[in-house]
Design a protein that fits this description.
Largest sheet: 5 strands, mixed
CATH topology of the largest domain: Nucleotidyltransferase, domain 5
Strand content: 15-25%
Shape: globular
CATH class of the largest domain: Alpha Beta
Strand order of the largest sheet: 3-2-1-6-7
Number of domains: 2
Number of helices: 6
Helix content: 25-40%
Structural class: alpha/beta
Distance between the termini: 28 Å
Order of helices and strands: EEEHEEHEHHEHH
Length: 190
């Protein structure tokens, strides 16, 4: 992928995010951290340990159960909404946007993109790289070939965006189907 000067990269999962900007050029990318945030989000077993689960009903012979809530997921959604807002606020002078996020986080971010983020979006990669060093993120971005623009529908609903290990072995990204419905591995995906 061509990492143009002032390209903004968001690397996120449900509890960590890193916002990067390329201060180098396309041939020699140099990603610098604009913002970094980690949220302490304990699992549900810790958040709901003292929550009531069943109560006795005075007028009915059975018992009432309280609705199950998922505060861990709610915290993740809140965090990702804040990450999407931070991304939208950092687009001044940006040449484009690339989002690298865990698959579930990527789905939540897509719902939260501001219109100017959608317009500037060049690629989305469904990988959880938030704990990786910046050099590893840079290597992945340089090796990534955009198979189709983000705003188009893949030839197969089962297609994934990018599979780096098989793409590096075969030279072709796997998961995407060509016009005849044949995948990079030669399997029909219809």
């Amino acid at each position: 992928m061509n990492l143009s000067h002032d390209l903004v990269v968001l690397v996120a999962n449900g509890s960590r995010m890193m916002l990067l900007r390329n201060t180098g050029g396309p041939k020699h990318p140099d990603l610098h951290v604009l913002a970094h945030r980690a949220d302490d989000n304990p699992p549900n077993r810790d958040l709901l340990s003292d929550a009531p689960g069943v109560s006795a009903s005075a007028g009915y012979p059975g018992r009432d159960t309280f609705a199950k809530s998922d505060p861990h997921k709610a915290n993740q959604q809140r965090f990702l909404a804040e990450a999407a807002e931070t991304l939208a606020n950092s687009l001044d002078g940006a040449s484009g946007v690339v989002v690298i996020a865990a698959p579930d986080a990527l789905g939540e971010l897509r719902r939260r993109y501001a219109p100017k983020v959608r317009k500037a979006l060049l690629a989305e990669i469904d990988r959880d790289l938030v704990k990786q060093p910046i050099e590893a993120v840079t290597r992945l971005l340089v090796a990534h070939e955009a198979v189709a623009p983000v705003n188009t529908v893949p030839a197969s609903p089962r297609a994934c965006l990018f599979d780096a290990p098989s793409a590096m072995r075969s030279g072709k990204p796997s998961g995407w189907a060509n016009a005849q419905g044949e995948s990079a591995s030669g399997l029909m995906l219809r």
